[in-house]
């Protein structure tokens, strides 16, 4: 497994730093966030170091998503939240706090007032079409 010696999550995987684990397999580790924004806030990380989504091998990304689903289902059973938010940030512009790919699972309750929702505001359809065309061109 690739490792970054300065990465806090790599240190957790190596056993050099502690965590409160909830799930572990050969490729992933799930543990409680020590700065939770809601009860049950859990992180899922790959044991292989990759800074962002763009660096993740597809097979490992699929495994992280499967682990996320498994742990989110356990959180639903254990805590019975009204919903769950999955958060995954890439880069400084998205406020990625640890440069090791990770998924946040955040159990939600109605009226929790977490600032991770946004208002529904109609966009400019011409601009949306133009951006879509640029994305489609970049996929080729």
Topology:
Blueprint: H1 8-13, E1 21-24, E2 28-32, E3 42-46, H2 58-79, E4 83-87, E5 103-108, H3 125-139
Antiparallel strand pairs: 1-2, 2-3, 3-5, 4-5
Structure description:
The chain has about 140 residues and is α+β, with helices and mostly antiparallel strands. It has helices spanning about 10-15, 60-80, 125-140; strands at about 20-25, 30, 40-45, 85, 105-110. Strands 1-2-3-5-4 form a five-stranded antiparallel β-sheet, covered by helices on one side. The model has no long low-confidence stretch (mean pLDDT about 95).
Evaluate the radius of gyration: 17 Å
CATH first level: which class? Alpha Beta
> Helix content range of the residues, please?
25-40%
**Molecular shape:** globular
Please give the alpha-carbon distance between the first and last residues.
Answer: 31 Å
Order of helices and strands: HEEEHEEH
Structural class: alpha+beta
Largest sheet: 5 strands, antiparallel
What is the CATH H-level superfamily?
HIT-like
What spatial order of strands do you see in the largest sheet?
1-2-3-5-4
Number of domains in the coordinates? 1
């Amino acid at each position: 497994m690739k490792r970054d010696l300065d990465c806090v999550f790599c240190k957790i995987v190596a056993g050099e730093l502690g965590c409160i684990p909830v799930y572990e397999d050969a490729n992933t580790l799930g543990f409680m966030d020590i700065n939770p924004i809601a009860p049950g806030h859990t992180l899922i990380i790959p044991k292989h170091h990759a800074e962002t989504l763009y660096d993740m091998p597809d097979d490992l990304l699929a495994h992280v998503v499967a682990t996320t689903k498994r742990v989110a289902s356990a959180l639903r059973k254990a805590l019975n939240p009204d919903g769950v938010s999955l958060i995954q940030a890439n880069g400084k512009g998205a406020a990625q706090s640890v440069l090791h790919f990770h998924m946040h699972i955040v159990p939600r309750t109605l009226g929790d007032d977490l600032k991770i929702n946004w208002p529904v505001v109609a966009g400019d359809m011409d601009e949306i079409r133009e951006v879509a065309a640029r994305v489609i061109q970049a996929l080729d």
